[in-house]
Structures are given as structure tokens and as C-alpha cells.
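Example 3.
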Amino acid sequence: MVYISTLDHKTYNQYDINFSSKTISYEIEKLMFPSYSRHIKCIVDSYDVMLQNGKWASDSDHQNFNSQFPIISKYNNFNFSSQNNFPIIYDLNLTQTMSVPTKLLYSESNSKNNTIPSNPLYPIAVRYISSNGYYFIERPPFQLEIDLNITSISNYGKPHFTKIWIPWTLSVFNPQNPSSLSIYFSHSSLTSEDSQYVPCFLPNSHAPGNICFGPTLMSPEFQLSNISSSDIKYLYSLFFNEYLNGGWNLDLTPNILPHITNIYNLSKSDPKKYPMMDAYANPSQDKIKQKCSTLSSKTISRILSEAFLSYTSKDVFRYMFLTMSTFTLQETLDFYNELTTTSSGTHRLFSFKNILERFNKESPHSFYNTYRNSRSLISSHFIRYDSQNSTSYVNYTPIIDSSIIVIGAAQSLKKYGQSYETFRDRLFNKIFSAKNYHDILSYIKSNILSKDYSYSENLIFIYSMDDNSISHVETPLSSQDFYVEFLQNYFSQQIVTL
Amino acid sequence: MTITIVNFDSHISFHVQHFSEDVKNSYTTFVEPSLYSSVIADCDKEKANTLAPLTSLLSSFSSASLSHTDTGIMPPGVLHVSKNFVVFERPPSYQNIFIIPKVVSDISNNEEPILYRLPIPWQLYIVQYSSTSDEYYTANVRMHFMSSSLVDVNQNIYMAPLTNLYTSGELCRPMYSSMDDIDRYPKNISGVINAAYDWIWNSGANVDLTASIVNSFNQLKDDPQNTILQNISPISLAKNSYSFNIDSYYCSGSLVNDIYSSWEKIPLDQVSLLRWPNNSINRQFIDDLRIAREEHYDSYIRDNNIYSPDCCDECSYYDEDNEEYINSDECECSCHNSNASESSSHSVDFYQYAGVWPVKDMKYIDSFQNFIKESYPFQNSLFQSNVGYTSMIDSIILST
């Protein structure tokens, strides 16, 4: 039973809870919405990882659980496999926070509806706005200067600049959460729902086109509380330019590498039918030398011959940038046109309709500020419990629900003679090869959670499960505080999915 | 109807409660926003429709709120979408204008329109749309010319000297013969944009409304840079001299023909460089003049020591039928005569004095705000409130 009471404690209402499987739900406003119920997931599901066959994996797990969740601990005998036996997690307070005469509210509403925001002009081409607040913004092709060192770290020495054409881009973001930016490439402007797009495959992008901003978001200019969410032009410019102005690294390379490799393999499929893809597979070294004179011929030769043999992340990107630097604008567009007409099992193409469906699914209905949604409240509640306890194990407990896994894992594998990158790549490879969600969970349980948790710092993995495929990875973070902050930020930016 | 909402922990969330027809006497309580939005998302259509006004009310407080349906694929150039308005621009292009240069009462059934292919500079469209549940319809359109793409809300915009447009830039809404003319557009923002564009360019034209052409002529007739007007023959000008007073608002079909014929000869790449006239503040320029007279004429007379037309008893007579004094046009008193002979220059002097002539520059933001005022003339009088939403809430919190 969840008790919902008014703030003044004069009236109390009781709301039945329905238990089904491993979800807790409650009903609100039965009178008004007799068929409506709302599910709170998260906490109960997250225990599943610590449980094996409905029992605690270890006594220490159990103790930690009890210390972290005293409200629930009195139910420590509950059995996850049975129904109708879940604990109370929340006391939901039905509060009359404040009241105003409705006529004032209407007046303000009219005023809001019919006044112009201070900066109402959109960026160059807003082509679509979804009812859940996503903006689909198109930009014509432009040239981009790229440092072939890829990463901005200075110890790589002399920069090697070259220019490539970026084709038509379609950027998708929600101004309530502009770091949700996804970018797609196309050879032409959007004309219909059947228009085809290739997800961005530049560094620091995820396979479905999401852009990873990482710690950049912590810098002052990205403090969203200082930026009006109605200023689409500024937000778009800020995030789009921040990404394309470089400052990249190779953190997400394993995520994007299969995509780039696949494009390379496809490019060799039919030289006559796909001349520009053939040009991509067989670039002219002389042309490349002209476009990037600072790079030695030997280095160019090595990159061209070995990039897709050794699959070194950096060289694969260098191959891609060097080759594309030899393309004119028209050739670049032709390349993307050919790319969107090919098909392959692992080659990711999206029609505009697919993209719409994806973002509609991510955010069913939210015209309000997602920083204040119930999920963020739940997660902050959860995290608050965590952060009050100094036990690192609990702080890095995986948080799992139907779509997201967050894991703190052992960066200190260096102690075991493995580099951070090696461990990460090995993990990614394992994840890529996993067939489904349960395989991944199983792997995580057996290979990560069993490690020495006292070293579980500095590496956080977050996986979003989208039809059993990995779609979102974030790594690494540097400290426990950062982890907590990151989780808070991450969850606060998720839109309620019920 | 009462809606109750949950407030998690100490987070101050959203609102709602009493949503009744008796708005004036009801109170609204605040509730958690995402719960409400989730509730709406899960409602069947009938319930969602029932709650649509409330949803609209709540969403008006969210800067992210636009509409409850997707916009559809919009053309490039959309500059702003809000709950009741959409703004878009178009680059210079040729437009085919089909016009029957007669007033509607003189048009016979088999009248063939004349086609002009006019080079059109940058255009700005401000569209007011209305909604019925989740379906959107174009309600009113304003169109302006621009010298370039709109990059700043304070950028100047100009009057399009075309038939069917008031001098404010607002379109006189077309008459449609069937529902198909309305229903063929998607019922979303994309459809609103398509309909607005068609209303301006593809709904035919006659010379019922020529005020923007006349006013344009009067603003620019002495401007040597305006090659459109400079190329019109003196004979045509002489025939239409009645249109060239500051308060004229109608011209003949022949003058429209002459202007369009001259306009056609301007190269497309030159058309945005031409000087275009300024829009009126009110829907019609004659309303700007009328308001100026009402507000400033007395002070003008006083400040300039000018005799009024009813300067002496001889100047007026009592009309028993209408029970009022009428100024006599035939008065021969010295004061009246001197005024009458200078009435034209006096009117120009007065309108200059009142600040309505020459017509002032119009900014995009000003036109948009004027449009809002005209579209919702009573919005501020229904429920007077001089406080912003946030300060309103703050004051309530403080008072408790």
C-alpha cells in the first residue's frame, strides 16, 4: 500500500498498489483515470543483479543492501520470484503546494502564449519538431578542418590538418536536454519520411548517431540553467559546433569502429556500381599528399595499407579522413548517396521515419522540463542513498532497468598487468558479440561484479539497450563524486519512459 | 473537474486542480508535471480531448511546449513556432500572379485572369493558426518583404505592394468554394505553412483591396531608386491622380496592371536591393491616420496656431435630420478659405507632426506584436495581471 496524504495531514487517501512481475505500480486518481496506473521501476530491478536465482549472491551483498535501503530492509525476506510481495519504496505525498486564482493562471497562460520570446529565431533549417520536444535541424554541407591526431592531447606533437566535406546533416536534440544531440549524414536535403540517413561516424559518436560530450558538459558555458531552452539557435550552435570543432578522442572508437569498417568493406563490393565508394577503398596517395602535405609519404602509405589490417583506432579514422579529404563536395555527396543505397546486416541506415520513431520512443510525451521528471526524482533519491555511504561497492552498484545499465568497473586492472584500453576494448568486444541482454548481464555479473570492488573507480560503463543492441556508452569518469554527479546528470536527463 | 497531482519529496513541482467552467471564481493548485503528461499520454483520445484545454493551459507555462502533434516535415526557412504562430521566410524567387484587374462585382463568369511573373525579394510570413483538438488550421497570414534573410528580431521588414494585402501586411483571407480547399492541407504546422503560402500566392487576385499598392506608390513616388514606379507612364499617372493623396486607399485595375508590368522587368537579383515601402501599424494605413487625427490634431492646431475648419459660426450649419452641426464646404469667410486652399499641404504637415508620415520603419518584432494584438484584442482585458508567472508564484509563497 502506498499512502498518499495531503500536506496538511487533514485528509488521507489510500491508493492500491498493483504488483506484477518485478515492478511496483500505483494508481493515481482512480476517479478521474480509472484505467490509469503508473509503474515505478528501478530499485527493485536493480537488485536482480545482486541476486542469483532469487537469493543474495553473498552475505556482504545482503548487508550492504540493508544498510543502504533501511526502508526496504525490513522486507529482507521477500522473494523476488513471487508476486504481490514487494516493499514500499516511496511515500507519495499528495500536496497542495500552492493555489492561485485560476483567472490569474489563465491570464499568464494567455500572456505566455502570445508573447514572443526574447530570441525566437530558429537556426538555419528546423525541419521537424516532434510533440515531445525534439528538434530536427538540417544544415547544408560545409567543410571541416580536422587534425589527424584525432585527440586533442598535446603530447601527440605536431598537428596534421586536412579538410573534409561534411554532407547534409540532420541534427536531433531536445532543448530541455541538448546534450542528447544526435547527428545523421545524408547526400541531400530532407524531402520525405523515406529520406535515408547514415548515423554520424566521426570520433566520439555512438553507433546510432548520438554524440558523446563527456566532461565537456561540466564546463561553465554548458551550464544549462543559464541557457534558455527556448533559444534553439544558440543551443544548437553551442552543441553542434562544440562537437564539430574537434577536441575529440578515441574513447568510443570500439563503438564506432565496426560501422567504419563495414563502410570500408562495402566500398569494395561493386566498383562499377559504386565509383565513389571504390575511390574510398582505393584512394590516391598522391592526392592525399596534396591535401595533407605535413604528413610524410611513409606515414600515409602505412595508414592506407595497414589501417584496416591492424584496426588501430587512430589509423582507421586517419584513413577515413585522409581519403575523404580528396573528395570534392559533389564526390562527397555521391559517396553518401552510394552509401545510403547499399545494404548490409551491420550497416546502419535510417530513414527519416526510423529516426522519428526512435525519438518518439525515447520520449513518449513530455512537454515539460525533463529535469524535473519523476524518473530524475527517483534516481536522485536512489543516488542520494548511495552517496551517503562511503562503501565503494554500493556506490558502484549497477543500476539496471529495462533499457539502461550503469556499471562502475575496475579501472585498476592495471594492477593485473592490463592497460585500461585493453580491458575496455576486450569488454566492448565481448559486449558486441553478446547476443542479447541476458548474455550481457551474465557477462557483467561474472566478469565485472566479481572483481575487487575496492578498486572499482575510474571506469563507468553505461549501456542503453535498444532492441538488444548497444546504443549508448559513456566512459570513463574519474572519481566517486564524479560518478554520483554523472549518474544524477544522466538520469535527470532521461525522459520518463513508462 | 478536479485534478490532483503528486509532489515527490521536497521538489516543488507543477500544478493543477480545479478546472471548472467558472474560471473567475476557481483556484488552481499545482501538481507534478511529468505525471500529468504521462497521464495524458496514456489517455484514450476522447479523454485527451476532454482535457485538451487543461493540457494547453499547463503546457503554456513550459518553454518547450509547442503542440500535441508533430509539426510534419517543414520546409527550410521556418524561423519560429509557438502555440499560435509560425514564422517562416522564403528567398527571392519569381511568382506567378493571376489577377483579374476589376473589383469583384464587375467580374463576369468567363473572365480570364492576366498573368504576371513578378520577381519577389526575400519574404517573411507570420502565420496565426488555430487548433481544434490536435488539428491545426491557418487562420491569418501576414507577409512582408525583406532585403535579406531574417537574422535579427530588430531587422526592418517592408510592405509588399500586392493586391489582397492590407498595408499592415495582413492578407485579406481568400474565399473558398469547397471544404477541399481547406482539408487538402495536413492538419499540422507543415500544413499551416503550406496553406499560408498558397493563400498568398495561389488564391487569385482582383482589385478589391489595393491599399498596399496605393500606399506604396505614395511612399515611394518621389524616390528615384524605385524603378518600378519611375517606369510608369505619365498618362497612367494622370488617369489615376485620385490615388495619390496621402489618405488614398484605392487605385484602378489599370494602374495595378501598369505597376505589375513595370515590376516584371526588374531582374531577380536586383529585386531585394530595391527600396520597398514601410508597413502601417494598424491593419490599414488610413487607421494610422485616423488615430493620429484623434490623438494629435488638437495639439497640432494649437501648436501651429492654425484655424480649425469650423473657425466661425458661418462655417457650419445645423443639420436637423442628423441633429448635429455640419461644416460648410461653401463657407466664404477669409479664415476658412485660406485653410481650404492649403488643406492638402496642411494634412501632410499634420501627419508629419503626428509622426505617421513619412511612414516609419517597421521591425519584425513590432509587426509580430501588432499581429498578436490584432489577433487577440481582448487578451489583456479579460483577466488583468501585471505580474509574471514566476513572480506570481513567488508572491504566493511569500504570503503563506
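Chain A touches chain B through 77 residues (CB under 8 Å). The longest strand of chain A covers residues 177-186.
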